[in-house]
User: What shape does this take?
Amino acid sequence: MLNVRVLGPITADIDGRPVDLGRRHQRAIVGILVAARGDTVSADRLIEELWNGRPPARATVSLQVYVSNLRRALEPARASRGPATTLVRRSSGYALSLPENAVDAWRFEQSLAQARSLPADQARPLLLDILRWWRGPVFGESRDQTWAIAEASRLDELRLLAREQAIQAALRIGDPATAMLEAQQLVRDEPLRTEACRLAALTLWAVGRESDALETLRHHRDAVRDEFGLDPTPALSVLEQAILNQRTEVLHAETEPDRIRPAQLPLQLAAFTGRDAELAELTALAQASAATVPVAVITGMGGVGKTALALRWAHQHQDEYPDGQLYIDLLGFAPAGEPLPAAEALRSFLTSLGVPYDAVPVSVPDRAALLRSMLSGRRMLFVLDNARDADQVRDLIPGSAGCAVLITSRALLNDLITMHHAHPVSLSAFVAEDAGRYLTRRVGAARTTAEPDAVGEIVAVCGGLPLALAVVAARIATNPTFTLAAIAKELRGSGGLDGFAAPGVTRDPRSVFSWSYRHLPAEAAALFRHLALHPGPDVTVATAASLTGAAPATVRTWMNHLVEAHLIREHRPGRFRFHDLLRAYAAELAGSDDDDAARTAVVRRGLDHYLHSAMAATALLLPQRYPITVLPPAPGVRPEAVTTEAEALDWFDSEYRNLLAALAVAEENDDGPYCWQFNWAIAHYVQDRRARLDDSITHLRRALALAESHQDDWWITTLTLNLARSYYRFDQRGESRAWYERGVELARGSGDRFRLTQALLGMAGVINGEHRVPTREAAETAHPYAREALEICRELPLDNGRVLNEAVALGHIAWYESHQPDGYRAAVGHFATIVDTLLRIDYRIGAAGTLLEWGHLSQHAGATGDAIAAYHRSLELAGEVRELQAEALTGLVYCHRDLGDDTGADEFRQAALAIIEHRRHPGMQRIRATLEAASRPD
Assistant: This one.
């Protein structure tokens, strides 16, 4: 069997026979791979480490030679060119594939962990044995190499811990004289180490040399002050006072062989479900913390199952903490009373460990120091349940490696995570599958299997919250004749949280949520209620500021209170959302604590925020658009401050669902002005940028109905034209033409010349848009509409709206000209004029669309080079408009196919298909059909 040793010079043997590992670089490779603990080390890193960043010219070849030599030494029985099984190649590097007991450093760490779980009389011989494995500085001559420093320091610390545990074990088995000698040697080796000093003083006290013990403590205090300018740790101060006051219970706590082993874990839930990832996360934390105290902070909203998770893990791993398990409910969010003071929690722990009630120190620091002293060398598990804040638990955390702490809290305890490196474990509600399994375990598979649809409905109403599921499961279990469908109907019909209230149940969702709510500052509590009046799925700080009328910085502080209390969650950076049941609870509070006027004002500010933000974003996306007068915002509303086109598009993408929700509120309230203006504000985004045409048509129809009921002619015409354009973009040309015809009629009737040009141009677009290249018949039919629109435009005041409409009219006229003698030259001249005009008013998307038409015309006329140039320039100007990009790429597919360049055609086809993928609106599907046609042979 191969044995590798690094606890001293790097050596190896096979069945006791030494192995020649070669020269320094070859031995260093073994050390580097041992330090990696079986993980792969890249060849580049090996080269970097071996030559300290200055590799020779043929370093890779040298490395391969070293590896080959080592393989022959470590695997002498391996067949020539046979696969290596010890020093193996993985991807771009190498690793040692060895069992734990084949490397002395790995075996040492494994044995040290084993010793911690043994009684003192069994642990001491094991510890003395493994300490004899050390033959000098870790990694020998390579100790000071960059790759070795961190691992060597870690192993040295584990060696010191083993020496300390051996001394503690000697005290426990009644051999204080030997413990004293070993402790004094440890102090000589590590004069500034706190635990070494503590053990030396403790063992001197144990053999009756109190004055020498006090002198040891004073000498250490002076050394630490001279070296670091610091006072000794509280544990040493407590020990010093205990010796001075002859408090022998402190000495007995360290030397008694039969210590009290508390087992205070409450009963774990029989129906515990899911949480596999979180349980694994806790286990990994405990396993990775051999030299420290792992502290996990399990956080989440009320009723999400924090205590259940902590107890589940604690029961599963209690054997790993043979000195006992301590549990305490800190009452941080209890329904009544104040949180349990840290002083009382410390008293409870000390008395549980055998300290007489009247011997417990008075001050919190002294109690905490005594607890840490008593825990030194022990392996104990602490469950600190329902903590209010970090201050409540800070003094309850042990200081010795071997212990572990699970803390549950509705608060995030960020200070503990930041300053004490606690590990956060955030719990969310169950996913539907786990929620269904939980119900099945509570009420039986026969009932849930018989009514799967009802189970799904119950899970949905409960929002996956374990507490809500538990209340419903209890109702099902106590009413065996009720069908699950009846229970689901009852939950649906009750509305809000009433369906989870039951006689004798003190921990339903409403009551549990209230324990968090009542701790909030008044402003944060008001924000919590008012956020429930926001109709969309999530909010930003800017939105919340508009809802409240307060400054964003102030609102951010209030939001932090809500996040800290797990009453709202930051599900994406800067975006916050409710759990459904918490939203229902907040809505209840808004209904009871705020009057109608206050609630109406909050809703109005929310609508104003989205309307004015959308108007500002649209102005950046399409500055050429004609302006409209918008309802003034309510006081305190601060629209989003977007400054670039990209920011505006990102804002629309992020807020789209909220915009539709706000629009739905206006529709439900029959609020015509809001509906009309919202539709106007989002029209360019939904029709041109993202082609959300189903939504566009649905909401435009509702807005038009309201405009007709209000008899507002201007908005009737405007919405009619928008609706016609949505149908056109949706590829429903017949519907579109009918609505444009109605738009022409309305505009002529009202004398609105600008709207009439739009309606006429829409008619021309529907006719010419039937084909990629308009036929002669279509171009001649569309021409009168375009000509009339152009004549009207020239009579209107000169502005961007007029310039834009003139350009559109000229495009239709260009298609008409293309069918006349020498028409190609004339049409191309018109298209060139349009592109220049649109770029002059910075309408890049319009210019990109015109260049597409130019490309279609050139391709149709056989001018393939001109077509390619037009398509490429269209791509440059298209920006984020995917449909324009896809169409330009499709044109390039055809052009390259016409040139016989199949490779180029395929490249452009793949690029176009990548854009079209997952986009199902008709425009994209039409392009897909065109691409498919281009891929077929003529």
User: Anything to note?
Assistant: The CA atoms of residues 198 and 236 lie 6 Å apart. The longest strand covers residues 404-409. The two ends are 72 Å apart (CA to CA). The longest helix spans residues 146-172.
